[in-house]
Design goal:
Length: 341
Amino acid sequence: MEYRLLGASGFKVPALSLGTGTFGGGNEMFRAWGATDAAGARRLLDICIEAGVTLFDSADIYSAGLAEEILGKAVAGRRDQVILSTKATFRSGPGPNEVGSSRYHLTQAVDAALRRLKTDYIDLFQLHGFDALTPVEEVLQTFDGLIRAGKIRYVGVSNFSGWHLMKSLAVAEKYGLPRYVAHQAYYSLIGRDYEWELMPLGIDQKVSAVVWSPLGWGRLTGKLRRGAEVPALSRLHKTAQFGPPVADEHLYRVVDALDAMAAETGKTIPQVALNWLLQRPTVASVIIGARDEGQLRDNLGAVGWSLTAEQNHRLDEASRMTPPYPYWHQAGFAERNPPPV
């Protein structure tokens, strides 16, 4: 397993990591993702660790904390072999302060995550979304205290816009506060919005991407085909409304290209889609999800080989979309504003 530096830090993470949204099945949406119990989670972690996948990502809202609890049980006795990542800022309770990035809520969220994970420290703690009501200075000062207390080691964000992230980095530099090294962002062959602003920012500021939903919210698993109905067992029946939108024609154009590429390479559609991502600028780790061993082992087959430059180009063309303003305008002046890819 290849290990890559995480942002402007000396910390290395595996190119693939395992997401734990499938752990617990605490409500209807998460049950559609999966309902892996502690024994099942431990088996998945066994397979991951054997393959060199040592980063495991969770969040306090995954099945209302149950995913973190199950992850904590699964890593028991081998905490020193794994990298734990989790997130907070979404509402975690009915109280007025049980949401956001205030010092109150972040401190509460970190302590609760430590209890559920049964650990003394979290390797990477990320803001699950931007909080426009809490001053950036308060957020970073809180993280500074948590790092000094030994409760977290590195900090990152998720689902930020470019100005959210850049403002935070500027404040960190101005006051000597902790700097975000990772941006957990949606990025896939059917969702390349990340490339328009966040990727150039990541290159310039050395903030790595930790990619969530790399298979386009379950649409690039190989089960969807042009002219065919969505399979009866697909989680899309219950979760499509919560995920990133995609036009059918764009989806099937990408699926057609992936189908052809899978035939050429002898790989599966998910393996090709993941391998494409692993060759993109700023990507440090791609989070894979699995409800069972079969899915996990298939996803693990995305590493150890590489698409050719020509194959990557064909996938680029099949998945290309016209960006919104001002990015389409900027693309016409590559001489002074070269694209990142």
